[in-house]
Amino acid sequence: LELDKDLSQALANNEFVLFYQPQLNLDTGEIQSVEALIRWRHPRRGLLPPVEFIPLAEESGRITDIGRWVVLAACRQLAAWRGTPQENLRIAVNLSGRELDDEDLVDHIREALAAENVPADRLEVELTEEIFIQNIEHNLNQLSRLHQLGVHLAIDDFGVGYSSLGYLRDFPVDLLKIDRSFITEVTERHDDAVITRAVINLAHNLGIEVVAEGVETEEQLNFLKSYRCNFAQGYLISRPIPVSDLEKALASGV
Ligand code: G
Ligand code: G
Ligand code: NA
Ligand code: MN
């Protein structure tokens, strides 16, 4: 497969780049975290989104090395922001279940943080509910170790997986990200509003904070504020953007 062959060279050729999508703190009105979303600057096909190569990388196992690059790049960025207006930002990186299989993942994250002298609580890891369905004991062990380091754990796309709620009891979860599909019509549909409010309350009663994904309108933002959702992420605030654009946007007070 041609793309797979290209993928084998992409790391060595330094073709990956992280874009960042800000998360707005609804209490303070400040950008407190950014989600890192990988892009591939393909030499012939242009800028490729993750859907076009992450599944391929998961199949071939290259995802492990890509994930290591992502963590290191995020730590380097956090270090580069030291002493700048961005110095309090947290970066959330996405990890797939396949990446959690790697026994050395936690050691690698610890080493990357240490190498860049970045406190662990500046890094957040986003995982989807798939990790609560298979290899549960292994995944619990990995995430407990990661949490002990001080890395924050977020459940991505919450509410659309097939897992039980029991894992919220067993796993060290700091943050739930309500899937975009509940937010899109949250101000028009009673059922989406009920589900969103229930998730916020469930999370808060467990001491977990909540991010709403896919926020595109002021009405949605106001709804989320009124139900005490902690953070909002979506095109209303910003699309995923290159780091230079992020720094400019923050400097001009987004
Ligand atoms: O940026 P975009 O909206 O196209 O992202 C689509 C999906 O790609 C998201 O579900 C996100 O979790 C995934 N993704 C983005 N960056 C990474 C990454 O660095 N590693 C992994 N494993 N998934 C990523
Ligand atoms: O799976 P994950 O939630 O990590 O993927 C985020 C994806 O959703 C990215 O591809 C990103 O570009 C996209 N996205 C982020 N914010 C919005 C939004 O407000 N509206 C829509 N339609 N897509 C969004
Ligand atoms: Na994500
Ligand atoms: Mn998501």
TrEMBL record:
<feature type="domain" description="EAL">
    <location>
        <begin position="1"/>
        <end position="254"/>
    </location>
</feature>
<protein>
    <recommendedName>
        <fullName>cyclic-guanylate-specific phosphodiesterase</fullName>
    </recommendedName>
</protein>
